[in-house]
């Protein structure tokens, strides 16, 4: 909706920005149509995109600062994200039977990202959060589903 000229300016800006950052996540504005409907306001569409980034980034920071069974420190995060180039971020939530696989599938198929695949990723961070009833097998199934996408 922004036109060819603005798209080209954005692409040139991203190329320049890529020279100065370790990791870059791009959400093309055109992809907002994938998550919106006819009644979604312009403002709300951008809030949806912001929320996806917020939840994803919070998932990374929670790995460092929130107490959990497995925690990482900044050096771990830096190792995975340093000089990696383009990145994707995905979040998924699910309930009921097969909830772990369903949440992993939702995280893998983020409709806002533009043709970004996890295939061949050099690094991956997985944050799995659940209630006290989450089983070892569910965690394993979710992590394996994400790894399958990379291999």
Automatic annotation (TrEMBL):
<protein>
    <submittedName>
        <fullName>Putative cell division protein ftsZ</fullName>
    </submittedName>
</protein>
<feature type="domain" description="Tubulin/FtsZ 2-layer sandwich">
    <location>
        <begin position="70"/>
        <end position="151"/>
    </location>
</feature>
<dbReference type="Pfam" id="PF12327">
    <property type="entry name" value="FtsZ_C"/>
</dbReference>
<dbReference type="InterPro" id="IPR008280">
    <property type="entry name" value="Tub_FtsZ_C"/>
</dbReference>
<dbReference type="GO" id="GO:0005737">
    <property type="term" value="C:cytoplasm"/>
</dbReference>
<keyword id="KW-0342">GTP-binding</keyword>
<dbReference type="InterPro" id="IPR036525">
    <property type="entry name" value="Tubulin/FtsZ_GTPase_sf"/>
</dbReference>
<keyword id="KW-0547">Nucleotide-binding</keyword>
<dbReference type="GO" id="GO:0003924">
    <property type="term" value="F:GTPase activity"/>
</dbReference>
<dbReference type="GO" id="GO:0005525">
    <property type="term" value="F:GTP binding"/>
</dbReference>
<dbReference type="GO" id="GO:0051301">
    <property type="term" value="P:cell division"/>
</dbReference>
<dbReference type="GO" id="GO:0032153">
    <property type="term" value="C:cell division site"/>
</dbReference>
<dbReference type="InterPro" id="IPR045061">
    <property type="entry name" value="FtsZ/CetZ"/>
</dbReference>
<keyword id="KW-0131">Cell cycle</keyword>
<dbReference type="InterPro" id="IPR024757">
    <property type="entry name" value="FtsZ_C"/>
</dbReference>
<dbReference type="InterPro" id="IPR003008">
    <property type="entry name" value="Tubulin_FtsZ_GTPase"/>
</dbReference>
<dbReference type="InterPro" id="IPR018316">
    <property type="entry name" value="Tubulin/FtsZ_2-layer-sand-dom"/>
</dbReference>
<keyword id="KW-0132">Cell division</keyword>
């Amino acid at each position: 909706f922004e036109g060819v000229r603005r798209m080209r300016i954005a692409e040139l800006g991203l190329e320049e920005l890529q020279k100065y950052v370790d990791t870059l996540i791009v959400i093309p504005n055109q992809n907002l149509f994938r998550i919106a409907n006819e009644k979604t306001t312009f403002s709300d569409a951008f809030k949806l995109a912001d929320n996806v980034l917020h939840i994803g980034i919070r998932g990374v920071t929670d790995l460092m600062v929130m107490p959990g069974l497995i925690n990482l420190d900044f050096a771990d995060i830096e190792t995975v994200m340093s000089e990696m180039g383009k990145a994707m971020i995905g979040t998924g939530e699910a309930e009921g039977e097969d909830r772990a696989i369903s949440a992993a599938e939702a995280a893998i198929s983020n409709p806002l990202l533009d043709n970004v695949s996890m295939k061949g990723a050099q690094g991956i961070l997985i944050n799995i959060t659940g209630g006290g009833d989450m089983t070892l097998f569910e965690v394993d199934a979710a992590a394996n589903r994400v790894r399958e996408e990379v291999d």
